[in-house]
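WP5 quarterly update. Target: High-affinity iron transporter. Source organism: Actinoplanes xinjiangensis. Length: 277 aa.
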Amino acid sequence: MTAIFLIGLREGLEITLVVSILVAFLVRTDRTALLKYVWAGVAVAAAIAIGFAALLQVGVARLTFTQQELFEAIASFVAVAFVTWMIFWMRRMARRLGAELRGRMEEAIALGPVAVASVAFLAVIREGLETSILFYAAAQGAADSVRPLLGVSLGLATAVALGWLLYISAVRINLSRFFAWTGALLVLVAAGITKYGVHDLQEAGILPGLNNLAFDISGSLPPETWYAELLRGMVNFTPAPTVLETVAWLAYGIPVLVLFLWPARTPAVTPTPQNAS
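Structure tokens (predicted):
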């Protein structure tokens, strides 16, 4: 639930920021008549994302055990790809996201209402589909279906509240720092999803070593305890992982976390030569 809350918060805040930037731009430029087209684009994108999430659940339930394990493995790896791309993209774009969106909106206004709705739709649909896939991948193996749904709902609700407070300037947070912290945590979440994908491939019989454990600390860390559940939810840590699962977690988590935390290189400024007098 904790990991899924973090996914809902991160993805939800991105969606909220995008929508609030578009709405604020129209309000401040006295174009409030176009707001209905923005909300229409947001509504259609949200409906498609929710429908896609429901389709995932219904479609997978009809597969055989081996097909389910294979599908869940593919969904896990797709989710990891999305997370990896998202955190590096947001680290690069956090400071200039508003200017880019405002520029797109100006171009859309010149084209007409459908273009305005399309800007909002395209800005939200990507995050919505990502959230659906990430939710499905992170929720695999949960004891029930209520806690994952509650986690993502709380995350999205918190994101909407933060976005509203930011919009009315009631709070101000350093977005670059926020995305840096949540990005680092999401790298660990993605490492756990990678590990889960490898486990699914082993369950499906595609990868060997299902019974070849790297270690077994079930006696010291009983799976039914709250702290074991917290570790499993956050980084998919299990007391008795296989060797391949452990290698997959480390092979993804360590290099990606190092690359993400590595200071961004600033372009060198070439001095302008002085003309001789």
